[in-house]
Amino acid sequence: LKAILTVLMTTLFSAVLAISLLLTIPKLRHGVFLFSLELPGYITKFLVEQYIPVRRFDKAVPWLERELKLVNWFAPPQNKLLPGLIKNAEYAVEHARFPSDFLILQPFLKKLVNSHPQLYPARIWLAQALANVDPHLSLEQLEEAVKLSPTGSKPFRIAINLALRNKMGEELDEWCSRYKNAHFGAFQPKSS
């Protein structure tokens, strides 16, 4: 009985001390709060890093989806948890090399784009994932990315490479022309 009472009193004293420190020191409280917001991103990164280097995207995607659900539950559409999710998704996409890797990532990327349609990198990643499956759908995602960032060169480069690879002459001409206009300005001949 005495041992149980000692453990209980020690636990109670530790809890009261921690609470009083958090209540009286604002910087400590703020630091703990910020750390708790970034903790899910760190945990997901640790877990994802176990699978992606060995090309086990099928094991990494559920962890990314869990983090996406947490981000959406916490405070949609944008919150402090979103940067961690973006870093983890970027890590996964950067390590995807083969069409089979992108095929596994595709459902997660679709969910990411559906829940955060204004997220430029998500549009680019989904376009890359769709490139080998449905080039026209990939071009639609690139179109949306250009709407979000008209001067970004990445969607144009991906679209041009996609059109070349799939022998899509009309789309190639269109994207080349749009790239030229977006980055160098449209040539307007001076009329006399």
Descriptive report:
The protein is mostly helical and 192 residues long. The protein has helices spanning 2-24, 26-51, 57-74, 82-95, 99-115, 120-130, 135-148, 154-165, 169-184.
Report how far apart the termini are.
103 Å
Class from secondary-structure proportions = mainly alpha
Mean pLDDT metric = 89
Number of helices: 9
Number of strands: 0
- The dominant shape is elongated
| Series of secondary-structure elements, N-terminal to C-terminal | HHHHHHHHH
Radius of gyration, in Å, reads 24 Å
Low-confidence stretches: none
Largest sheet: none
Estimate the strand proportion: under 5%
The level of helicity is: over 70%
Short characterization:
Helices cover 79% and strands 0% of the residues. It has nine helices and no strands.
Topology at a glance:
Blueprint: H1 2-24, H2 26-51, H3 57-74, H4 82-95, H5 99-115, H6 120-130, H7 135-148, H8 154-165, H9 169-184
Helix pairs in contact: 2-3, 2-4, 3-4, 3-5, 5-6, 6-7, 7-8, 8-9
Tag the structure with descriptive keywords:
single chain; 192 residues; mainly alpha
